[in-house]
Amino acid sequence: MPPTLVLIRHAQAIHNMYTAQLREHLKSRLPADRKVQRIVVSPMRRAIQTCPIALDWLIDSGVPVVPDARWQEIYTKPCDTGTPAPQLAAEFPQIDFSYLDPVYPDKTSPAGARYAYEKGAILARGKAVLRDLCNYERNEEEDGLVVVVVSHSGFLRSAVAGRWFGNADYRGPYEEVPSEGGKERVTLVEWDSTKGKGGMGRSKEDLVEFGEGLPEDGGLKLG
């Protein structure tokens, strides 16, 4: 069975009422016939903080939370730049940050060029995270697993889903469809239940072209 992904945009604030509403909605709407295998999360605080509120019942059942720097937000403003792993580990001891890319949260030096605010780097990230998730799940012995991802509006819109994500909204389940003509990008199909304004109804309906509005590459060599 092809992999199933649920893509969530984090809440704007830790006590945002939307997070509790998201929790109740996800708890009743996630596919009952499929097991959630893991929660992949951007290592930025607002994404991590969304998990124990919106996904607490999954975490309490033993579903691991896996931070992945590739799911961080695309911009380089201070509010969109993360916190070093040692500090995160102290703040969130229940999460294992030992496999987090050691270059995180750098986005501006040559070492962090793969996270640069440039069209090429961002699109490459989008292709990589989807390819890796789908390939990982194919290697699992159990079919029909679900991966829940908590990330950011800019990255999800520009490089992963081509759709808008409102505050604490989600889209999916997404299922992979066979690529045509050797296409590099994994092609996902969104279930009808979240098409349009998203699962919570907080998102714009417009489709977005991958890379739309992103700055062209500035010449940083990928580290």
Textual characterization of the structure:
Pfam families: His_Phos_1 (PF00300). One of its GO terms (molecular function) is phosphatase activity. One of its GO terms (cellular component) is cytoplasm. It comes from Parathielavia hyrcaniae. InterPro entries: His_Pase_superF_clade-1 (IPR013078), His_PPase_superfam (IPR029033), PGM_Phosphatase (IPR050275). With about 220 residues, this protein is an alpha/beta fold. It has one domain: 3-Layer(aba) Sandwich (Rossmann fold). It has six helices and six strands, in the order βαβααβααβαββ. The protein has helices at about 15-30, 45-55, 55-60, 85-90, 120-140, 155-160; strands at about 5-10, 35-40, 65, 145-150, 170-175, 185-190. A six-stranded mixed beta sheet has the order 3-2-4-1-5-6. α5 (about 120-140) packs across α6 (about 155-160). It starts with a strand and ends in a 33-residue tail after the last strand. The model has no long low-confidence stretch (mean pLDDT about 90).
Any chance you could write out the topology, listing elements then pairs?
Elements lengths: L3 E6 L7 H13 L6 E6 L3 H10 L1 H5 L4 E3 L17 H7 L27 H21 L6 E6 L1 H9 L8 E8 L9 E4 L33
Parallel strand pairs: 1-4, 2-3, 2-4
Antiparallel strand pairs: 1-5, 5-6
Helix pairs in contact: 5-6
